[in-house]
Amino acid sequence: MKDPTTPPALPTRIQHSQNTFSTASWHSHTQSVHHRFPPSALNPKPIYRAARHTPNETPPLQNKHTARFAINTQRCEPVRRVVVRYNHEIQRIHRRNVARRGYSSISITMRSFRSHSLAQVALFITFIFITLTSTTATPLQSSQLHDHSRRDAYAAASAAAEIDIPAGSVHKLVKRATTTAAVCTATSTVKTTQTVKTTQTVKTTQTVSSVVYVTQTVTASAAASSTKATLSDVSSTMKTSTSSTSGVVASVSVSTSKGASETAQIPASATTTLATSTYTTSLDKSGAVTSAPTPTAATTKTSSLASSVSINTKTISTSASGVTTAGVAKPSSNSLFAPIALDNPASKFGSREHTEKPLSISGSFLTQPIQTNKFYGNMYLGTQEQPAWTHPYVLSWINNNSTGFYGMMVSHVDDGQKVYGPDASAKPVQYYINPGGMHSLSFSAQEFDTDMTMSLEKLDHMSVNVRFQPSAASRSGNQALLMPMVNGMGFVTGKYYKLTPAFNSGILVRSLTQVKSPYSNSYKYEILLEDGKMWVMYAFPDSTSQKAFNLTVVSNSRLVNAGGQFSGVIQIAKVPNTQGATTSGAVDPSYTVTSAISVYDTYAGSYATGVTLGGSVQGDYGSYTFNYAKTGRAVPLLMFALPHHEASFASATLAGKTLVQLQSTTMGLMTAYAADVWEMVENDLPTDVGFLPWSPLGKSATYTTKALAAIASAANSEVSQDFDAQTDLDSMYYSGKALAKFAHICLAINDVLGDKKLGTTCLNKLKTAFATFQTNTQQWPLIYDTTYAGLISTQGFSQGSLSDFGNTWYNDHHFHYGYHIHAAAIIGHLDPTWLTAANKVYVNNLIRDVANPSANDQYYPVMRAFDWFVGHSWSKGIFEAGDGKDEESSSEDFNMWYAQKMWANVIGDNDMEARSNLMLAVIKRSLNSYMLMDTDNTIQPANFIGNFVTGILFMNKADHTTYFGTLEQYIQGIHAIPSISVSGYVRQPTFIQHQWDAKISSIIGGVTDGWKGILYLDYANADPVAAWNFFNSSSFSSNYLDGGMSLTWMKKLGYFLVLSWVHRTGPGVSFFFLSYGPTTLSNIPNHGSLFVLDGFIEIFRMCSFER
């Protein structure tokens, strides 16, 4: 922030066009115009003044270092001006008018507007009026203009503080003419005079008590009046004035209010013409995208809604609490992972055992909650021989009598070994995969055979222990190989108890070299495989009395310890042949194979056995930690980090970076860090995202009469639908989508339209529909599963594991339940009395099933869906999967955590809300690294990022497809549903625009079903005007709505995003949009060439450096 008492530095000479002038001339010119302002018009604490003047001193009028701008007398706001390039004749006339009339008028000559109609000029002048009266935080009381023709190098007519208009657009708009304007003196009387060359004069006069702004909520003092006049008032006056060729004086009646917080409004007409139609009242149950409930035929009539709701222009807050953000405390927590509840869900839902029993889990570990969506799930399902992905290593149990391989096989695939297809030369390719069967080295023992056993212990959310033992018949005492599997582990470690270590290789061993170990009583080997990849091995016996560890080559596929049985730790790690490119694309020049081995030497002997998750949130700032449990040597752990970890590491964690890098399977290059604790920091938590539409470009919305009428039309029709028929389905997923859809309709009616009567009708119907699920009387009730500890649908037990997308088998719970939780949050927001104990218990159990944060809650596993290591969730449940868990819909993933956030907000669970905000920040970073691939993505393969979305991201591959079809609209769209308030936080506008241009624009014309609406609603985050026009087009078809979409919400969200774009683009666009609505200029009569939608006018923030 600049020192307000220090003048900003100006260049010694400023170049503009063909003219050059010095800063001394600049200040001298400033002095020449400053004297026209009386001292009373100057703020006693000017924002800009010479350093020699004290802050409370009025600057002398004759000093060249006096304030360059007129200062707002109320709030120290510099005056906003419009300066447009003009010819010398206009400049001369302008100076004359200034001298005669002062600064309370706009004076424009038409000499340079010969080719433009009167309507165009009036529109331009009105635009200037709006620019000067509607874009600052407080009303302007005085203004000052700089009439030097070269002054437009620093041209300024500012929008709100956060608005920037790209430079250069003025030259596209007005080629020859420039106006310098100033309005709004303390008299609060604004006069606009146009002097037309043909001697025709049109005058527009408005007398107002003060000025308000249409794009912001204005807080007025108790004594001040707040005008309810909008741009539409000005626009209507302008149209009246320009309809005649003779002088016309038109007045606009402006109503005022003394409310503490007022916004621009226009009274609604007595009747409003709205569209209505016949609606289908059932939701497709087949799993396909449907068009219901949507209009089947369009008619026009006067809506009964008009009599019950005043459709005014109004500003709507979008904060999390549903009220203005001022004074609302942002959630903070130092106990992010406190339990949600500890009650037994069986008392509400009943209980039963699951028919799909987990394998190789016994004893006390079988009675604890079992993780169903983690990296090691294959090890207790099906054949138990499908891989587990710790990243970067892939491990799998091998029990193969034909090869004689028994034990834990370790694999790693380099980037150059990935397989691309189906056409490897395509750009982009459809998929890439890490080939299976590339068995580098396995941990085994001479005592293992086909009757060996494998069991799992301590099944946590980021780790598991695996125990291998000889068959019971041949086992002696406690013989075992214990292997901890922890996400990111730098070494693959085996703890041997009285076994003879053996190692197998499916790639085959080229050479085995014993080298001197850097530590006493330890052993080190370098193993070169036939693929040219080197691995290092370290052996640390438990005691000095043990026989020497003597690894020998039995065959090119088998190494055995010739020293016999061994008790101690053995570790292996892969040595990169060459270091992979870092995220910046550079390769560390100091890297060599020797340097990488030196890193392994330093940290060998220490290994992780588990992870404890920690974290805290303070408002917008959050951090989370991985606190590793470890054993072995007293040196820091060596652990591999994914790209999104590195991007958020705290400085202390970054200090542990090493030269060693290995490829992950599907999430880019991993770098080894030496640290026992990782700390990741997120400083952009979505604390201001609430129930209503949100955009990073603007946080409040001013809805015009036309927009409110469009929203009301959709809402009035959609509320008349049969909520029960559309929600009580044979699918928790589709039922949830329908509940969330109707919840958004009720939200729009209550918080945007303000129609209490219709809102009550909607909410009562929604409560009734939701009660079916809260009382567990839906078609397929939920039941508590005591086997895995979770809340599942009963449907799968009678209709098969794949029914309802595998809900009974724990697939997609975060997708399914997220919609239900979101609907409940909206109900609780609209009616806090609904938040009874029974309703809260039901919703909290849905959250506990998906995202229980605490091991103290013994009824659910910790974080079933969300993977804190990779930064997003996984699906698949208890299905064996050769390519591991997967994620098909990134947007339905963050919908769950947004729903959790809003539920926490309404029930007042500060820890949950803070945790949700942190999770959303983490998932935003992760998804934009691995699944949402913009053109500058350097993490995914270069020949794959052109797909823009991964499609289905597996642990072992990425495939640009979906489970239900291969059409591009399916693949792109599944990552965009639902389009909710937090979508604009996660999915960046630049990404959406690039995605649209590359993958969607060429196909959207041929899409005729609900995916069209899905894609256009998502596109509203990048080009809201195009999206708004689509949804409000006369050719809009009901087929463009999917069964889980509400036209009410689509119009509300779409309109808000247009307004956010207006905020970003500037006051000229604000005026134009609110006068005419989002449309193209070709639809406006006599638009000529004065305005172009991509530019409007060059507007700079003159005082931005002075704040």
From TrEMBL:
Record GO biological process: cell wall polysaccharide catabolic process; fungal-type cell wall disassembly involved in conjugation with cellular fusion
Keyword Ribonucleoprotein attached: no
GO function terms (MF aspect): endo-1,3(4)-beta-glucanase activity; glucan endo-1,3-beta-D-glucosidase activity
Disordered: annotated span: 18-43
Positions of the Glycosyl hydrolase family 81 C-terminal domain: 703-1050
Polar residues composition-biased segments: 18-31
The Glycosyl hydrolase family 81 N-terminal domain, residue ranges: 366-696
EC nos: 3.2.1.39
GO terms under cellular component: cell surface; mating projection actin fusion focus
Protein name: glucan endo-1,3-beta-D-glucosidase
Source superkingdom: Eukaryota
PROSITE patterns given in the database record: GH81
Annotated Pfam families: Glyco_hydro81C, Glyco_hydro_81
Catalyzed reaction equations: Hydrolysis of (1->3)-beta-D-glucosidic linkages in (1->3)-beta-D-glucans
Transmembrane segments: none
Family: Belongs to the glycosyl hydrolase 81 family.
Swiss-Prot/TrEMBL keywords: Carbohydrate metabolism, Cell wall biogenesis/degradation, Glycosidase, Hydrolase, Polysaccharide degradation
Organism: Saitoella complicata (strain BCRC 22490 / CBS 7301 / JCM 7358 / NBRC 10748 / NRRL Y-17804)
